[in-house]
Specification:
alpha/beta
Length: about 260
């Protein structure tokens, strides 16, 4: 948390009803717990986090799943876990990107995306291609980390327009963000590689990451990820139906992380 405080003025972490009491207590002690919605669904969870971030008075909001934020602090530039967390140069560089009224979409590099289990990577690649095609964007874009940076006014409108409750929120966010700014700016990062192995370090260390990843390549996982495809696209299309948009100006940035002293 001290490292995150060096990057963010205000931290708002919402927890689901099933989150362990120990985690909630730790977040509350760090003045970072932003509450728990009544239902265990993604939409209310995300919207509550964004509302509480706005309540902190910040000029810009960076949405990022908390487990991904922790993973970014726990990885080295070569992608290996480290016992000595530090401020990642890559994340610090992302936060230095000026946005003004633009929305910054923060995605996974091809390498980071492929680090996830195969059913997730393949199905999400198809969804990302659908989103890019519908928005008139050429080339690969990863919208499904999900992570973005927007100003207060844009974030407030996003929360007001959001309706999705379950997994449709992933597609809805893309559709709504695309219509809320004069330009989308995109950058992808290695630090958004697969965070789930962090929760099973002993097993991963014993059997190896490749063998552990293969455990997710099952018919059940394929069915789950295929079902998510339909929900993501449905959420996206519903958002565009409610708030139609034209061509979306789009630009890409390449990070040049500056050196950090004392990190």
């Amino acid at each position: 948390m001290p490292l995150l405080r060096r990057l963010y003025r205000h931290i708002a972490v919402t927890t689901s009803p099933t989150t362990s009491a120990r985690a909630v207590t730790a977040l509350a002690a760090a003045d970072a717990h932003a509450g728990t919605p009544a239902s265990d669904t993604r939409g209310p969870l995300y919207r509550l986090a964004l509302r509480r971030a706005l309540a902190g008075g910040t000029a810009r909001v960076h949405y990022l799943d908390f487990d991904r934020a922790l993973h970014w602090l726990l990885r080295t530039p070569r992608g290996r876990p480290t016992a000595r967390p530090r401020v990642p140069r890559e994340l610090a560089a992302v936060l230095r990107i000026p946005t003004d009224r633009r929305i910054l979409i923060v995605g996974r590099t091809p390498h980071a995306h492929r680090s996830h289990q195969r059913p997730l990577w393949i199905t999400e690649t198809r969804v990302n291609a659908h989103f890019a095609s519908r928005l008139g964007i050429a080339g690969r874009v990863d919208f499904l980390a999900p992570s973005f940076i927007a100003d207060r006014a844009t974030t407030r409108l996003l929360v007001a327009r959001s309706r999705a409750r379950g997994a449709r929120i992933y597609g809805e966010l893309v559709g709504l963000l695309a219509g809320l700014a004069p330009e989308l700016v995109y950058v992808d990062c290695d630090g958004l590689d697969w965070e789930t192995p962090d929760r099973a370090r002993a097993v991963v260390s014993r059997v190896g990451l490749s063998r552990w990843r293969a455990r997710f390549d099952t018919p059940a996982e394929w069915r789950l990820r295929t079902a998510f495809v339909a929900q993501f696209i449905d959420g996206f299309e519903r958002a565009l139906a409610r708030h139609p948009i034209g061509r979306v100006p789009f630009s890409r940035l390449r990070l040049r992380p500056p050196p950090l002293t004392g990190s």
